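Long-time lurker, finally posting.

We've been working with 8002_t:CDS:1 (Funneliformis geosporum) and I want a structural starting point before designing mutants. I don't trust myself to interpret raw outputs, so I'm hoping someone here can both generate the structure tokens and explain anything notable. Sequence follows.
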Amino acid sequence: MVTMVHVNKLVTPPYSTIPFYDGQEEPDSYYAKLRNINELARPLAVAGFNPLVRSNKIREKMTGRFHPVPVNNSYNANAPINNEAESLNWLQGKYWEVMVRINQDALRSLMNEKIFTIDTADTYEKRIKTYAQGIPYADVLSYLYNHMTQYMEMRLKQANPANLDAFFTNLRQI
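Top reply, 14 upvotes:
Generated this for you. Predicted structure of 8002_t:CDS:1:
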């Protein structure tokens, strides 16, 4: 007879290879990885590996701003998070709240920044990188160019930096 011990032996090794979730990727792709692991145990037809247990396996992989996972989903009329679909629904809502709102606030702050005459490339980088972390470089670049004098902007555009680190390296050289 197959038991939960057998199920745990089957799903624990693949679960351990997946990093804890902290917003490093889109919720749908992360969820798909965890759901695929849960599906490994479905053919065993163990009654104890029910939707709540599968949902709890997903819950255990959350960390940082995504932990703890509440009992009820505030993004879906406080529905209980007791199955995989509701886990995904909560994760999508939390991801939007954490990642999208924070990025929007960071972009607003970035709009109000500029490079000052007393700034060095290092002091400017230190101040700006806090806003730019986690935002795609292509989205940040136009704001950074707006901070520069016309000469600096032209030189940076000619250098065509590939990422944020290259941008600041080129800025030091200018």
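Before you design anything, note these points.
Residues 6 and 44 are 9 Å apart (CA to CA).
Residues 84-111 form the longest helix (28 residues).
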